[in-house]
Design goal:
Strand order of the largest sheet: 2-1-3
Mean pLDDT: 85
Low-confidence stretches: none
Strand content: 5-15%
Largest sheet: 3 strands, mixed
Helix content: over 70%
Order of helices and strands: EEHHEHHH
Shape: globular
Structural class: mainly alpha
């Protein structure tokens, strides 16, 4: 069972999860196979908790993590709905964090490339 923010309980619905992923990935270079694999990983994470109930925030966080790594536009689309941004400022902060993360990842890759190319 998934415990919603308002306290309601619903059965975990893989098809609802896939529908949300498809919506976020609409018109993006993401295959149905990749969406199915994301759903598999998210469902496995839910099952690993071992309990009968899981907060919807856990499922939403897992979706956010998976989309962040897969496609950043899909991530922002999902985040805009999931986090219910109140104004453009909140949305911009999310984008700034995404840009910062991308820059940090690029710098890390650049350092690794320098270090691996320096041995002779």
């Amino acid at each position: 069972m998934v415990i919603k923010k308002d306290g309601r309980r619903e059965p975990f619905d893989r098809q609802k999860l896939i529908a949300g992923l498809k919506k976020a990935c609409e018109k993006r270079p993401v295959s149905m196979e990749e969406i199915e694999q994301l759903a598999d990983r998210i469902e496995a994470a839910v099952l690993e908790l071992g309990g009968k109930e899981v907060p919807s925030s856990f499922v939403g966080g897992a979706v956010m993590n998976e989309l962040h790594d897969l496609d950043q536009v899909a991530y922002v689309r999902f985040a805009s709905v999931y986090r219910s941004f109140k104004d453009i400022g909140e949305f911009m902060r999310e984008l700034e964090e995404l840009i910062s993360h991308r820059q940090q990842a690029g710098a890390t890759l650049a350092r690794k490339g320098k270090n691996s190319g320096s041995s002779a």
